[in-house]
Specification:
Largest interface: A-B, 27 and 27 residues
Order of helices and strands of chain B: EEEEEEEEEEE
Largest sheet of chain B: 7 strands, mixed
Number of strands of chain A: 11
Largest sheet of chain A: 6 strands, mixed
CATH topology of chain A: Immunoglobulin-like
Oligomer: heterodimer
CATH class of chain A: Mainly Beta
Number of strands of chain B: 11
CATH superfamily of chain A: Immunoglobulins
Strand content of chain A: over 45%
CATH superfamily of chain B: Immunoglobulins
CATH architecture of chain B: Sandwich
CATH class of chain B: Mainly Beta
Radius of gyration of chain B: 13 Å
Number of domains of chain B: 1
Distance between the termini of chain B: 37 Å
CATH architecture of chain A: Sandwich
């Protein structure tokens, strides 16, 4: 079993829709959770960063972490065509043997059409 | 402020050859990370360098190696290239040496092995 599972999509929604992106994971040592956005032919850029369980909101983006279910989500409100990209979840632990290492999902390809 | 830069943007090699990829971190960042993003797969951690030392290594064979220079730039070398090495190679940098800081990614080098 892969440590981080993410449905690759593709996901296609109309402008203004609420988008829900999800990842599940198997390693209970993961404590830090991130969402990156990657436009075509670009490197990933950090969108959201959360520690442990709970919610974090930043503008139209909300990240949720449920450690008891090993499940994280990213919600995008009022989606825009400019949100069209691949969204990658990433996570890491504090354990010495894994320091520096981010574990990524495969990414979900999102298209928002006008 | 300039972001992480990588060169070349594209590289074409034949099986058995060696490839050298380069990365310049954000000014002030001392840690450099390398990831492989093969088609349809998530980013896979390759290497972490900090202050010129290799700090951690992913599950890749020894023909993947690298180094970090005194100016904190880094080089990834892939020897005895195989067809499955074709991928986007991403470099990231972070401030600090603990392996727990936010990683900022460059645009990547796309390697094609024929």
């Amino acid at each position: 079993q892969k440590e981080v599972e993410q449905d690759p999509g593709p996901l296609s929604v109309p402008e203004g829709a609420i988008v829900s992106l999800n990842c599940t994971y198997s390693n209970s040592a993961f404590q830090y959770f991130m969402w990156y956005r990657q436009y075509s032919r670009k490197g990933p850029e950090l969108l959201m960063y959360t520690y442990s369980s709970g919610n974090k909101e930043d503008g139209r983006f909300t990240a949720q972490v449920d450690k008891s279910s090993k499940y994280i989500s990213l919600f995008i409100r009022d989606s825009q065509p400019s949100d069209s990209a691949t969204y990658l979840c990433a996570m890491r632990s504090n354990r010495g043997s894994t320091l520096g290492r981010l574990y990524f999902g495969r990414g979900t390809q999102l298209t928002v059409w006008p | 402020e300039a972001g992480v830069t990588q060169s070349p943007t594209h590289l074409i090699k034949t099986r058995g050859q060696q490839a050298t990829l380069r990365c310049s971190p954000i000014s002030g960042h001392t840690s450099v990370y390398w990831y492989q993003q093969a088609l349809g797969l998530g980013l896979q951690f390759l290497l972490w360098y900090d202050e010129g030392e290799e700090r951690n290594r992913g599950n890749f064979p020894p023909r993947f190696s690298g180094r970090q220079f005194p100016n904190y730039s880094s080089e990834l070398n892939v020897n005895a290239l195989e067809l499955e090495d074709s991928a986007l190679y991403l470099c990231a940098s972070s401030l600090g040496s603990g392996g727990q800081e936010t990683q900022y990614f460059g645009p990547g080098t796309r390697l094609l092995v024929l």
